[in-house]
Amino acid sequence: MIAAMDTQPAFLDSRDFARVARAIRFIDEHFREQPRLSRIAQSARLSEFHFNRLFRRWAGVTPRQYLAFVTARAARRELAGAGSVLEAAYTVGLSGAGRLHDLMVTLEAFTPGEVKTQGLGIEVRYGFAASPFGEALIGSTPRGVCHLSFVEPGAESAAAAVLQRSWPRARWQRDDAAAAALVSRIWTPSATVLAAPRVPPLRLAVAGTNFQVKVWEALLGVGGTTTYAALARAAGVPRAARAVGAAVGANPVAWLIPCHNVLRKDGELGGYHYGPDRKRAMLAWSALRQRPWFEESAARPKGAVSGGSSLLT
Predict the structure, then answer these.
(1) For 294-312, how does the pLDDT look when each residue is reduced to its tens digit (9 = 90+)?
(2) Phi, psi at residue 83, to the nearest 5°?
(3) Beta pairing partners, 263
(4) Cα gap 169→234, rounded to integer Å
(5) Chain segment 183-233, per-residue pLDDT in tens
(6) Cα-flanking dihedrals φ and ψ of residue 105, to 5°?
């Protein structure tokens, strides 16, 4: 039986996250070969000992346990005769009550007047902090979180400049401690949130067109992974899948509005502003925190799989 998952979130710098993300990609692409730990660690460019420790710190399970998890999910899907490896690994069970977004996020839009004045009179605190997916840049106003993005090493100044250009007349104050506190709240394990039902929802305050905000609201309401076509139907615009894709790409608060959950209709990853490895890691991190999945996969054998809001106008 697999040991219980760690109860504290693991926040990594961008370099360590990149190592974990490479390993997840390697496992997802090579699980049919059932690679040894040494080979998986080599993909992350670490020794077996250091890689095993880093991966467990991030995922709450060992690399071999994650390999068994992916294998069992894919085997079940292939036996059912439908779907892709990504569907097998991430889609089943990611629904409804399992998602933190349903428990802790509310969304409202800035008014047209606030957008027209380019943030005049609005104070924005911003800062950098380590997250489970590398360094994050977070901006917040008294109304709520207005920005969340992921930043590569050495790109901090450029990322902050881009953020400030989005609200050129706002008052800006750097506050890394506040950013770290927000990161801790955003990536608190679901068990902690459920144990403290009086914790108020995390508020988002975003700038977007009527259409964009409608799509973001629909994405918050969808349980787990979805497709652009299904999201268009949920948003009430079933023939606008391409425009829905553009709205997903314009999401100003990564992870909190879970645009990483939108896959192509064939179940493959599709694009993501912060890179496919980060998207794959986000899906894996979420899936590993679905307890029934985790325990069921632990009980299965490791056999290989056959075959190769105020809206704007």
Answers:
(1) 454 444 444 333 332 333 3
(2) 90, 170
(3) 227
(4) 36
(5) 998 887 554 444 455 567 789 999 888 899 999 999 988 867 888 999 999
(6) -125, 130
Dist CA 123 CA 128 (whole Å): 17
Show the domain range for 72. 14-96+277-299
If asked whether residues 78 and 132 sit together in one domain, one would say: no
**Catalytic residue at 146?**
no
Q: At what angle do helices 276-288 and 63-80 cross, to 10 degrees?
A: 90
* Mean pLDDT along residues 81-101: 40
What radius of gyration, in Å, describes the C-alpha atoms of the chain? 20
**Axis-axis angle for helices 276-288, 48-59 (nearest 10):** 70
CATH code, 197? 1.10.10.10
The DSSP annotation for 46-101 comes to S-HHHHHHHHHHHHSS-HHHHHHHHHHHHHHHHHHT---HHHHHHTTT--GGG-HH
Q: Sign of the CA dihedral 297, 298, 299, 302?
A: positive
Could you say which of 12, 61, 159, 259 is catalytic? 259
67 and 108 fall within a common domain: no
Strands 123-131 and 171-174: parallel
Residue 151 within a domain: yes
Burial class (CB in 10 A: 0-12, 13-18, 19+), 113: exposed
pLDDT tens-place string over residues 124-134: 999 999 999 99
Pair (66, 116) in one structural domain: no
